[in-house]
Specification:
Length: 478
Amino acid sequence: MGRLVVVSNRLADPRKPAAGGLAVALGEVLRNTGGLWFGWSGAIVDDARAAEGSLRIQQAGAVTLATIDLCREDHDAYYAGYSNGVLWPVFHYRLDLANFDDHDVEGYRRVNRLFARQLVPLLRPDDVIWVHDYHLIPLAAELRAAGCSQRIGFFLHIPMPPSQIFAAIPQHEWLTRTLFAYDVVGFQSRADLGHFAGHAGCDAVAKRANEHRLEAFGRRLHAGAFPIGIDVDEFERLGRGKEARDAYVTTRDEYARRRLLIGVDRLDYTKGIPQRIRAFRELLTHHPGNRHSATLIQIAAPSRESVEAYAGIRIELERLCGAVNGDFGDLDWMPVRYIHRNVARRRLPGLYRAARVGIITPLRDGMNLVAKEYVASQDASDPGVLVLSRFTGAAEQLTEALLVNPYDIRGTAEALQQALAMPLAERQARHDALLGHIREYDVHRWCADFLGALDPPLAQALGHHARERRRRATAPPA
Ligand code: ADQ
């Protein structure tokens, strides 16, 4: 069995629970292959020469973590500039927020080349390389230029926009060409896959051998939809833990006379948080029976505060929440609790469980794992209702949620009313179906399916490990 090498912009120590399901799942595969995880350390150093000599290798159990630093100029152009100032907005259909600057794309190329240069000496001939997300689209092309012939896969965590939007990026032809240096390219949804196949047809004049095989630039590519999931077992375990139970009891008792709605996001303009607050306001306006009762807890973790397009959203949100509380609140009832902070992962299941409605309404989202975490945290005998934007990758699977158009404020408010009034039997039936999808497409299935497409022998061996793990977990004590 070959060794798995994961490359992503940032790393998470897979031993720490705060790392989340993705790191836990990748950590498990990496542990089983004695794998390597390579990425940026998060540190910014003064000059390029210091960055060049900054490779640090650490052992986290059986997993090797290798990181490099970036110099200020590269960081600003690669991370804040091209990745989060061009690719993130355009891939989320926000051409109005994209800041096309030739200077940034040079930095993006430089850092991808630096990643390749630093990674190559660490590679073994039978390694299988899995690259993650929009920061590293051209990495395989750089690795190939450096002589790598290993299997290389790429997974895009964010949406793939339709060709007419993607083509607005001045370097779209180059980006498409570099994607053909991979052996497998994975997307979150069938819609994303369709957009990519359509675009490759235009840009690369790719031939489509079958549903998943594209040919261009003398290379063959397997393109597929691999919807990411959560580690349901891990999340249920967290839910049984002390911190989650405390969070549940405290929240339930504090809001005993209220009906809670919850939103949990990074504070990002793609997450539709202002529209959500407006929809909640509309609910209170048109369904006054909810006043003194419905309470929205909106947790929005600080995110990418150095990127220009993020500056306004915090102020807008504070203003909107303040206006709802000022116009509708009373001495004993505050309609919106807005918390601009990260909540400890161990407490999240308790908060989700205490809320009658999970309101997840991004304007555009690759998948959205909060929606899945909300469902997995519910009490099956008295579950809450998921109100989900139809513009998330999750909506392709979670069709038993109340699907809404987040731009339609009145329509979203009506869905909130429907959720708050939903009879128990309907809540149970919907929850049961949703949990079924979430279990079937969990993060382990995502890993296994992607690696199955990239390197079948590796996936087979890992499948064996996973079966063993499940057998040991369910076996009665000797
Ligand atoms: P994100 O945009 O970060 O990820 P999402 O999938 O919603 O979005 O959340 C990822 C994780 O962050 C979840 O486990 C969630 O619990 C946690 N999180 C979010 N807000 C939090 C908060 N305020 N406090 C504590 N934890 C919080 C990108 C894509 C998504 C895709 C993921 C995975 O944008 O579409 O689902 O990658 O592929």
